[in-house]
């Protein structure tokens, strides 16, 4: 059942079984949730809930939503993701990223369901010289990282069958992200100042959704699902890059596609994280070692540029980037 992920495989998997699973997807309107909603339907019946229908900050409402659906699989793509604002909204961040995740794990355990959850590279402090392994000690620097780690620990302590995918620098064509911000600023300004001393592995929401769908298909077809290799896995595109060089690549590709820019790739000025003065501290190095995922499931993960360029081509066709030119 080994599979190797190509650059893009729309609707390439089918679950050919008599009973198709019910999947509950939270955060369906987010970057990742949007991509998951497009793909999970090939596996079974998807109940996709947005923040209004399923607010993770409301425990009673969250339990009610899960119990009404009684899903075979819970895919939690919702979360508190504003890294800087979390420093001031600590209680909210922990309620959504920690307590609610523990609640979902409890419900999954009680129903015998599988929980799929997404964690972050920001659980690490960035002091390691090489990519982080799943077994490396977590030491988050920010409230956001600490709240996400609380969710990871809650799942581990629940005893629920779970797949926790730790990833980072996520971007997709749906919703706001760093790449879209750089495209917008490149059209509006004559120069950009971007942090050059923080390094990570940019990963598209599309790739994460493809990996998720692939593994869920295998899980549902597994002879003995109780012995499926559950656990924590790092999911990230291959390679690494600084925010500065990532911005340069975004503008370089936009320029090749004929986008009129005020600030081209040569106008991106490298600065330090100290110069940028973000509210929340970020790890200087947060690359993830994906060997456990690749070896366990025989999955190939493309270089970060492959996903970025594909995503940019999709973004550049959106109305917000095609309605006007900048001279």
From TrEMBL:
Top-level taxon: Bacteria
GO molecular function terms noted in the UniProt entry: dTDP-4-dehydrorhamnose reductase activity
Substrates-to-products reaction catalysed: dTDP-beta-L-rhamnose + NADP(+) = dTDP-4-dehydro-beta-L-rhamnose + NADPH + H(+)
Chain ranges of the RmlD-like substrate binding domain: 23-315
Cofactor(s) required, per the database record: Mg(2+)
EC category: oxidoreductase
CDD domains named in the record: dTDP_HR_like_SDR_e
Presence of keyword NADP: yes
Keywords on record: NADP, Oxidoreductase
Transferase is among the record's keywords: no
Note accompanying the cofactor annotation: Binds 1 Mg(2+) ion per monomer.
EC number: 1.1.1.133
Annotated metabolic or biological route of this protein: Carbohydrate biosynthesis; dTDP-L-rhamnose biosynthesis
Family membership noted in the UniProt record: Belongs to the dTDP-4-dehydrorhamnose reductase family.
Stored PANTHER family: DTDP-4-DEHYDRORHAMNOSE REDUCTASE (PTHR10491), METHIONINE ADENOSYLTRANSFERASE 2 SUBUNIT BETA (PTHR10491:SF4)
Purpose of the protein: Catalyzes the reduction of dTDP-6-deoxy-L-lyxo-4-hexulose to yield dTDP-L-rhamnose.
Name recorded for this polypeptide: dTDP-4-dehydrorhamnose reductase
Gene that encodes it: rfbD
């Amino acid at each position: 059942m080994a599979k190797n992920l190509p650059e893009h495989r729309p609707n390439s998997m089918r679950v050919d079984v008599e009973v198709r699973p019910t999947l509950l997807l939270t955060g369906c309107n987010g970057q990742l949730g949007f991509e998951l909603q497009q793909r999970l339907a090939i596996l079974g019946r998807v109940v996709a809930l947005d923040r209004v229908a399923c607010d993770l900050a409301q425990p009673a409402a969250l339990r009610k939503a899960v119990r009404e659906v009684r899903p075979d699989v819970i895919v939690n793509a919702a979360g508190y993701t504003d890294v800087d604002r979390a420093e001031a909204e600590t209680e909210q961040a922990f309620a959504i990223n920690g307590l609610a995740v523990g609640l979902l794990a409890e419900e999954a355990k009680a129903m015998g369901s599988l929980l799929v959850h997404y964690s972050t590279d920001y659980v690490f402090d960035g002091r390691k010289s090489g990519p982080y392994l799943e077994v490396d000690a977590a030491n988050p620097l920010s409230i956001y990282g600490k709240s996400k780690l609380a969710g990871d620990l809650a799942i581990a302590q629940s005893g629920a069958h779970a797949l926790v995918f730790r990833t980072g620098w996520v971007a997709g064509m749906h919703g706001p992200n760093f790449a879209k911000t750089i495209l917008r600023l490149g059209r509006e300004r004559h120069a950009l100042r971007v942090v050059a001393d923080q390094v990570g592995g940019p990963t598209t929401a599309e790739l994460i959704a493809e990996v998720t769908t692939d593994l869920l298909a295998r899980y549902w077809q597994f002879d003995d699902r109780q012995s499926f290799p559950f656990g924590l896995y790092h999911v990230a595109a291959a390679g690494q890059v600084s925010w500065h060089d990532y911005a340069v690549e975004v503008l370089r590709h936009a320029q090749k596609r004929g986008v009129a820019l005020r600030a081209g790739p040569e106008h991106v000025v490298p600065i330090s994280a100290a110069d940028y003065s973000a509210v929340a501290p970020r790890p200087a190095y947060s690359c993830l070692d994906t060997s456990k995922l690749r070896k366990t499931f025989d999955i190939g993960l493309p270089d970060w540029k492959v996903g970025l360029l594909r995503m940019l081509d999709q973004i550049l066709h959106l109305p917000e980037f095609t309605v006007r030119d900048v001279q």
